[in-house]
ABC-type dipeptide/oligopeptide/nickel transport system permease subunit
Amino acid sequence: MSAVVSNEKAATVATSEAPANQAWWRRFLRDPAALIAITIFSLICLAAIFAPLLAPHDPYASSRRTMLPPFWAARGSVEYLLGTDPQGRDILSRLLYGTRLTLLIGLASVAIGGVLGSFLGLLAAFYRSLDPWIMRLSDILLSLPAILLGLALVAAMGQGATPIMLALIISTIPDCARVARGIGLGIMGQEFITAGRSLGIRDPQLFSRYLVLNCISSVLIFLSLRFGQLILIAASLSFLGLGARPPVAELGMMAAQGRDFFLFAPHIAVIPSVLILVIVMAANVIGDTLRDVLDPRLKT
């Protein structure tokens, strides 16, 4: 009789919680700041994906019309809407291609580092015998700053986007592992985990169906906020000359190329810097709103 009552209660709770879980995206879109942020971020991603179709010029082709200002300035030209750089290359075309590479580095780093870090953190929470070993490995990785790690990898592998991506992945793993471990320890203390063990559910099923699924939303919130940080770190490393090899377009490198001409051609450095700012702000607003929507402790 008690089993029937408990099953009815579980069904009632599941039925009442289902609409709330299914309507999280409605609450997300009701936030004006989140709606603006996701619209801007989506447009930037679409422009980066379709860069070969949208770019008005070859991003690597030089011309004699060097350091032209944007079209709204006195010496501007409609042919080059955002002007040209010191080599006479179209800034708008290089922005489109540079945004593609910057977003690729950020998304790949947060995805690979997030998956590896989350797996290690949840593994430490599920198997307590592995917890000291995984956490000590996490402490070692946390002691390596991303910029210094990027310097070391560039010195060992050479300049390019690959060592920067590896540095960002390695720096993401320990942070995500600690977050996932903390969430996982809270889940492992719940009654349904104990009930699952008493019913004889095997560890792989208990790990994948009960632990991982209950931690996904919190991990995604962390990774959405981490994405903006990775974009800034990648741009900083490229600004220092450690990113993609010239003439490959990348936002941080484009900003660095314009610093020597900042006094009489500020648009060369300002335009890519503003785009980095917009990407990071949009990602942070989306992450904050996801946290407000998905975190059960913040729900009203």
Observations:
- Residues 1-21 have pLDDT under 50 and may be disordered.
- The two ends are 34 Å apart (CA to CA).
